[in-house]
Design goal:
heterodimer; A: alpha/beta; Pectate Lyase C-like; 4 helices; 25% strand; globular; B: alpha/beta; Alpha-Beta Plaits; TIM Barrel; eight-stranded parallel beta sheet; 15 helices; 17% strand
Chain lengths: 272, 499
């Protein structure tokens, strides 16, 4: 952390970190909205309640805060793409749907989406947690990775689409395959975990062999993994007030673990 | 298995000079040499020799000469020795042929068909030894116009970087090259006031003190990236493509991911580091715009954002899109750009020469009136200060050099970087070999190179009666073509010698 960053992370006292600050984002350019949040955070504010968000991008991207001193953002409306891109710490809760590239290359923090999310969610993500109540689009969780104590986790309540977990190198994704608002999935997804060489996908419901990539094995989760699944399903139900559904969701025989056959899927391709 | 391959090189040892000191055996990382104790002679496994010349250079009695093997198949313009031996290698392994460094095929080198002008009588030439010469270069967006407000000059202040000379070190990741080589590049850039590029291998914390001389990359694997990584650097580069292997990703094999590399890339030790072919969040110019602005947000609009592509057929249109998407600097890497590892078939056949791509892109951006929106940096096949001068006159703002920097560190372009066995200690992670690059000596060699080329650039400026590199940018009247077809001169935007 350089001096400028340290200043941002350790604000001069001014605004109360406990008070929720309301910002009306209607008609605001994303640059101005994010700058305003940054400015207030530098003065000590830690809780932001964004009203009428309408497509503003990069919410949560450049906010510096220490672990002890978490920034929290509530988003009412529909945030734009790249929400939480490169994010390092903040917690964002979206009361609506999110667009593409949510949590792009995210490092740390938490995102909770009360609706559905678009494509490329969690691309290259290295840490933190993302909970989506509903469905997600294509190319979700591509090239997620883990390192040291950082194990990124995505929980999708609904369904996923093609190229889910492609090139996955670490972390975990739990897919509950719940029919969001009672709607069955529009289509079946394919190419799940193509090129996967690390991490785990826990899939509730049946997954056909033609849906998954050649580099992926399917097996029942171990006891230790089941504990992890239980923990995150509990978190999911808590985040969306679905306490009564937890028992129904947590049927162990319904869960499958998708994991890479090899950590070196492309080791044998070359002539030296 | 019996191989039908013949050794590519012969080891010619002068037994009268050889003192059996076994230096060659210790220095060779490709297991060419052995020692026969009973007969007190050195033995050779020539099939392993790559002609890196490490043994020949270090032999204290100059007893060794590494020569190309004279073997020949029946002369055939179509089925050359290379074509036959490549095919045999593939029929024995069933694999994609790998190689290192830039394309070595005899495609036309346009630099060698361009000549530079000099002043005679009508305008005086300048002696750079006695008169000031300006090589300082600023990269980043330049304003459309200047305004005078209340007697003061006013213009938008776009983020930029300043270089003392228009030469930067191109992207070579820690992982592709050794720590000592990487550190030498960082220190030399710092000492000479230019920039080096981390590539996509993360950036060791202890080297962040050279931040103002560092370009960090955001490539498709997103290795080693966090907010600090961006904000500690002088500039952030989105890497889309690389001249040696346009359109494909990277792959650092697990055995090269050592403890320190794992720390720097932020991936587990021993796991493959795979960079996908595309950025999966960039499938269009609009998506590129989204990532450029994500990086601008992440750096508080304080750092210029560059986008690097390889030179391909429609580069000018892509470059126009990149500039309009908000790139402050665009980097174009040509056909002869180097690599640590690439499929040979791509390296030798995909992409176009940088000279043509550069001229076409500069022309296109000028025609569209957006040339000042972004700086243009080129790379791939720069060999000397003459090439740099010609590149700048064709429209480049600065150049990246990779292979020249490695040669300064000891590389002999044997093209075996992908094996991880580099005997010169450059493209390897073997601690026994990496010691061979001494950071102090390496830094000095790189600084020497920058200094020598900068002096030569000043000489070239002076002979043309010009005292600032800025006056050469896009000044194609300084150039004339020789031995070029009319379409080539048209693309380069230059006239023929004598015209």
């Amino acid at each position: 952390m350089n001096t400028a960053q340290a200043k941002k992370a350790n604000p001069r006292k001014g605004l109360s970190p406990r008070q929720w600050i309301k910002i009306d984002a209607s008609g605001m350019y994303y640059k101005d909205l994010n700058r305003q949040i940054r400015g207030l955070a530098e003065q000590g504010a830690r809780k932001f309640d964004l009203q009428n968000v309408y497509g503003q991008r990069y919410i949560g991207t450049n906010l510096w805060a220490t672990e002890r001193d978490k920034i929290r953002i509530r988003v009412h409306g529909t945030p734009g793409s790249d929400m939480g891109a490169f994010m390092d710490g903040p917690e964002i809760e979206v009361y609506g749907n999110a667009q593409d590239a949510t949590g792009n290359t995210m490092n740390c923090g938490k995102i909770v989406i009360h609706g559905s999310a678009g494509d490329v969610l969690g691309y290259g993500m290295r840490g933190g947690e993302i909970y989506i109540r509903g469905n997600v689009g294509y190319r979700v969780g591509i090239h997620m990775k883990e390192y040291d104590d950082k194990i990124p986790t995505i929980v999708v309540g609904g369904t996923v689409q093609d190229f889910f977990g492609e090139y996955m190198a670490g972390g975990r994704i739990i897919v509950l395959n719940k029919f969001f608002e009672g709607n069955p999935p529009v289509r079946q997804s394919y190419f799940i975990g193509t090129g996967m060489h690390g991490g785990n996908i826990y899939f509730r419901g049946d997954v056909n062999i033609e849906q998954i990539g050649a580099e992926v094995n399917v097996i029942e989760p171990t006891d230790a993994e089941w504990k992890i699944i239980e923990r995150y399903v509990h978190n999911y139900c808590k985040a969306f007030d679905l306490g009564e559904r937890k028992v129904k969701l947590l049927k162990r025989e319904k869960f499958w673990r998708l994991y890479p056959k090899s950590t070196r899927p492309y080791g044998m391709l070359y002539a030296y | 298995m019996l191989t039908a391959q013949l050794p590519e090189f012969n080891v010619d040892r002068d037994e009268d000079r050889c003192i059996q000191c076994r230096v060659c055996e210790r220095q060779c990382s490709f297991d060419v040499y052995g020692y026969d104790v009973q007969n007190n002679v050195m033995i050779h496994k020539e099939e392993n020799c790559v002609a890196c010349q490490r043994c020949a250079v270090l032999c204290p009695t100059n007893a060794l000469v590494i020569k190309e093997n004279a073997y020949t198949y029946k002369q055939n313009a179509n089925w050359t020795r290379e074509a036959i031996s490549d095919l045999k290698k593939q029929s024995e392994t069933g694999g994609v042929l790998l190689t290192g460094m830039g394309c070595d095929k005899p495609h036309k080198i346009y630099w060698d068909h361009i000549l530079i002008n000099a002043s005679q009588v009508t305008n005086p030439s300048i002696d750079p030894l006695r008169e000031p010469m300006e090589l300082r270069t600023h990269l980043g967006r330049k304003p459309d116009s200047l305004e005078v407000k209340d007697g003061k000059l006013s213009f938008p202040d776009y983020p930029k970087v300043e270089l003392s000379t228009p030469i930067m070190f191109g992207a070579m990741s820690y992982g592709a090259i050794s720590y000592n080589s990487f550190k030498s590049l960082a220190q030399a850039a710092h000492e000479y006031g230019t920039l080096f590029n981390t590539g996509e291998g993360g950036w060791p914390k202890e080297l962040r003190k050279y931040g103002s001389n560092t370009i960090v990359q955001c490539a498709s694997g997103r290795f080693g990236i966090d907010l600090e990584y961006f904000n500690d650097a002088a500039m952030v580069e989105i890497k889309i493509g690389q001249g040696a292997k346009p359109g494909i990703g990277g792959h650092l094999p697990g055995e090269k991911v050592s403890e320190h590399i794992s720390l720097t890339r932020m991936i587990p030790e021993g796991s493959d580091a795979i960079s996908p072919a595309p950025h999966h969040d960039i499938y269009s110019i609009e998506d590129l715009q989204m990532l450029i602005h994500a990086l601008k947000e992440a750096t508080d609009y304080q750092k210029p954002i560059s986008v690097k592509i390889s030179a391909v057929h429609n580069s000018p249109a892509i470059a126009s899109g990149m500039v309009r998407a908000g790139a402050d600097i665009i980097v174009v890497d040509g056909l002869r750009g180097g690599t640590g590892a690439a499929p040979k078939i791509l390296r030798d056949n995909v992409g176009i020469p940088i000279e043509l791509a550069l001229a076409a892109i500069d022309t296109r951006l000028r025609d569209e009136g957006i040339r000042n929106w972004a700086s243009l940096v080129v790379s791939g096949g720069i060999r000397n200060a003459g090439d740099i001068f010609k590149a700048i006159a064709l429209g480049a703002d600065a150049v990246y050099v990779g292979t020249p920097a490695l040669i300064a560190l000891g590389c002999t372009v044997c093209q075996k970087c992908y094996t991880g066995k580099c005997a010169w200690g450059i493209t390897t992670q073997d601690p026994y070999l990496t010691k061979r690059v001494n950071t102090e000596i390496g830094t000095q060699a790189l600084v020497n190179l920058l200094r020598a080329w900068s002096l030569e650039l000043k000489e070239l400026l002076g002979c043309g009666g010009i005292n600032s590199i800025e006056s050469v940018r896009g000044n194609r009247l300084q150039l004339r073509g020789i031995g070029l077809e009319s379409w080539e001169m048209e693309t380069l935007g230059i006239r023929g010698a004598g015209q």
